[in-house]
Amino acid sequence: MQKLINGIHHFQESIFGSQRDLFERLAHGQSPETLFITCSDSRINPNLITQTEPGELFILRNAGNIVPPHGASNGGEAATIEFAVAGLGVRDIIICGHSHCGAMKGLLDETLVADTPAVRQWLTHADAARRTVQENYADLEGAPRISACVQENVLTQLENLRTHPSVAARLARGQLNVHGWVYKIETGQVFAYDPVIGQFAALTQASIPAPSTPKRHLTVSI
Q1: Are the beta carbons of 80 and 166 closer than 8 angstroms?
Q2: CATH for 33-202, options being 3.40.1050.10, 3.30.750.24, 3.30.390.50, 3.40.50.2020
């Protein structure tokens, strides 16, 4: 806790002053262009990865970067998505998974979440990813199997995202794009799903099109 308190004082004394104009503008409202949905994992820092400033990303975090289908949960995810899309008018939604995801390990091996019933229940919203891995990646074990699950889960959550009315309406009007990313912690690389090749590929400065119906077997290279 002392480290956090020291950090607050450092922010107030050394950083805030140099960005005072920014924070004064933000006090009057926000207009982020992107909703960034990612895992609660402490190793993931969306603003650091994307080099964005306060006010540029609207961020939703939970275990496993999960988006329950519309009507399947009374949690805050649906409200956050609806507010971002209908209230703030974001133009892009990114669902970003990551390497070494503990939620995906628990999804594939329920013994790891046997003593955490709330986590086990939450992960049922990713059950399609679990079954896809079980039935289509039987040849994989260990880290490659987890990697496959991380990628398939991103695609599963994109499908769930499209069931939300505010998202579906904006997608139909061409006013919203959705993207699937995977962040590799140990290299800093970000891989984006490319519907043209049906795979995740290293993100470059070239624009990435919005995902279409994905192919259901990925080449596990992350």
Answers
A1: no
A2: 3.40.1050.10
Q: Are 118 and 170 within 8 A, CB to CB? A: no
Summarised one tens digit per residue, pLDDT across range 180-211 is 999 999 999 999 999 988 999 998 866 555 55
Task: Output the pTM of the full model.
Answer: 0.91
| Whole-angstrom distance, CA of residue 73 vs CA of residue 181 | 24
Angle between helices 127-136 and 142-161 (to 10 degrees): 130
C-beta separation of 39 from 65 below 8 A: yes
Domain with CATH 3.40.1050.10 in the chain: 33-202
Burial class of residue 34 (count of CB atoms within 10 Å of its CB; 0-12, 13-18, 19+): buried
Side-chain half-sphere exposure of 169, counting CA atoms within 13 A:
8
Side by side, the strands of the sheet bearing 190-194 are: 57-62, 34-39, 92-98, 177-183, 190-194, 199-202
User: CA separation (Å) from 141 to 133, 137, 181?
Assistant: 11, 9, 22
